[in-house]
Amino acid sequence: MKRYLELIFVALLSIGITFSLTSQNKTIDGGDPWSNGFNNCFGCKTEDITKMYAGYVEEWKRDISDAFDEAEIKVFNIKPTPDIVGPHEDPKKCICKGSGVIVQGDGHKTVCPYHGNKFGKDIIIKPLTILEE
Q1: 115 in a domain, yes or no?
Q2: Does the residue 106 lie in any domain?
Q3: How far apart are CA 92 and CA 100, in angstroms?
Q4: What is the pLDDT of residue 31?
Q5: How many domains does the chain have?
Q6: Which domain covers residue 106, as residue numbers?
Q7: Residue 61, C-beta contacts closer than 8 angstroms, at least 6 positions apart
Q8: Cα dihedral sign, 22-23-28-30
Q9: Consecutive 10-residue runs of the chain (133 residues): their mean pLDDT?
Q10: CA gyration radius for the chain?
Q11: Which of 44, 49, 64, 69 has the smallest set of CB atoms within 10 Å of its CB?
């Protein structure tokens, strides 16, 4: 009989705790409190965490990039080439590689703002034409 009472007590206690945790209406912005990242009504708001780490993000990006470059040197025995993102004053770093013409992803060409001036007005660049049926 004592064993049954212990089992009933534990079952009632478990049910009571479950109801107390699920019945609390701790929602943020009308959503489920467990689906809001760090903002679970426990004292940390997502905006606060974002502001707290904002200064570190760029430093982390540089550190990660350096770590990948170092790993590439050690694993592949080659020095990584820097990413070319767009026009740059230095022809080695510019996407046009000093030619003055930037070939876009869809194949059309545009004049480089830094190196395209060597053509003067003699260059003719056709704009992208999209034909609709």
Answers
A1: yes
A2: yes
A3: 12
A4: 55
A5: 1
A6: 84-120
A7: none
A8: positive
A9: 87 86 58 54 71 85 90 86 77 85 85 75 58 63
A10: 30
A11: 64
